[in-house]
Amino acid sequence: MKTSALLSSALALTLASPLVMAHKEGDFIVRAGAAVVAPQDDSSAVRVNGSAVPGSKATIDNNTQLGLTLSYMLTDHIGIELLAATPFKHQVKVSGVAPGIDGRLAEFKHLPPTLSLQYFPLAPDSKWQPYIGAGINYTRFFDEGFSRAQRANGFSSLELDESWGLSLQLGTDYMITDRLMVNAALWYVDIDTTATARLGTSKVAVDVDVAPWVFMVGLGYRF
């Protein structure tokens, strides 16, 4: 009888005090997963000594790295998040410039830290926690270099300007336990840069509106 009474009391207490499954004011949330940067590049024509080469353009391929985010819940519904990652590495191709030059041109790495203010519309005890966000991005480019074939063609001194721009975000967490969650997130980031280089004694430049979609799927943990 005592055992039955204890079990009944425990069950009643559990039903009366449901486990908090989601985010609340003061929580830190760390998320990690596979992050894909997919540039929606739109470049100007390649310029040689200031003169545009008609029909020429540059394109940038996708890359996947480890994505990391750290969030802090300012209230039960408002959070602030920093997006970071291991360095992304991209190849640059050009077309319409000249035979022997068209094709793979160069490669570079970049880091795109992004700071976002987020809104979580659902109640704090919901297992599903969709959110929207908006913020600012800073992108620094480094390790720029031409392919061996393009160096043989006379290309040298590649540089990409740093970029500041706005970002938009959609995402959702699904709570597996009161601490562990599955996360999926999507960002649109306004990144644009000007690439400059030398081709022999000529100066080469091209403006690229990278404007990537960034996708991340992974796990998160709430502290």
UniProtKB/TrEMBL annotation:
<feature type="signal peptide">
    <location>
        <begin position="1"/>
        <end position="22"/>
    </location>
</feature>
<keyword id="KW-0732">Signal</keyword>
<protein>
    <submittedName>
        <fullName>Porin superfamily protein</fullName>
    </submittedName>
</protein>
<dbReference type="GO" id="GO:0009279">
    <property type="term" value="C:cell outer membrane"/>
</dbReference>
<dbReference type="Pfam" id="PF03922">
    <property type="entry name" value="OmpW"/>
</dbReference>
<dbReference type="GO" id="GO:0044384">
    <property type="term" value="C:host outer membrane"/>
</dbReference>
<dbReference type="GO" id="GO:0055085">
    <property type="term" value="P:transmembrane transport"/>
</dbReference>
<dbReference type="InterPro" id="IPR000758">
    <property type="entry name" value="Enterovir_OMP"/>
</dbReference>
<dbReference type="InterPro" id="IPR011250">
    <property type="entry name" value="OMP/PagP_B-barrel"/>
</dbReference>
<dbReference type="InterPro" id="IPR005618">
    <property type="entry name" value="OMPW"/>
</dbReference>
